[in-house]
Design a protein that fits this description.
4 strands; two-stranded antiparallel sheet; 15% strand; alpha+beta; extended
Length: 170
């Protein structure tokens, strides 16, 4: 594995990924073990820390961001039981993230499971999300672990086949 650090997440500025990654590796080496999240924050407190600018140090702003994160966690942990056409029960999130157009903009919102299942646009978004997550799993686990290569190939072939089936005109 080569250390060509990068991130696909907009929360970490591309220009700073390498600096952050190198500092985390330096801290891991200094501690002689894995790092706890609190230790990372403690190390980043110093204004000259390479990690300092990643964190929100205003308690008011951080408090608001934390409460928003808590709302996301709340939505993520509440479940409902869904029953398939054969009567089998399975847990599912009570609300899921979708994109809804209102106020002339696309907004990320949480919508209830029944609403998503019954709205063709929301349902399509969630199916596309499921396909994307399967592909992401393949990228994350398929290459470094050769033992998973056959499963990776089977998943990618199935996703491609199902996307084509769902997108083809009837």
């Amino acid at each position: 594995m080569k250390n060509d650090f990068h991130s696909n997440f907009p929360i970490v500025p591309v220009k700073k990924v390498k600096r952050y990654a190198n500092e985390l590796l330096r801290l891991e080496e200094a501690y002689g073990r894995g790092l706890r999240a609190k230790e990372i924050v403690d190390e980043a407190r110093a204004k000259n820390s390479p990690l300092h600018d990643y964190f929100e140090w205003s308690n008011k702003a951080a408090g608001d961001k934390y409460r928003i994160q808590q709302a996301r966690q709340l939505v993520a942990v509440i479940r409902v039981t869904v029953i398939d056409d054969k009567g089998r029960e399975a847990p599912a999130r009570a609300m899921v993230s979708v994109i809804e157009n209102y106020d002339g903009k696309k907004n990320h919102v949480f919508a209830s499971h029944p609403k998503v299942l019954n709205d063709p646009d929301f349902r399509s978004q969630r199916i596309d999300t499921a396909f994307n997550e399967l592909e992401q799993w393949c990228r994350r686990w398929g290459h470094p672990y050769k033992e998973l290569a056959p499963l990776r190939r089977a998943i990618l072939e199935a996703v491609q086949k199902e996307r084509e089936r769902l997108l083809s005109p009837v």
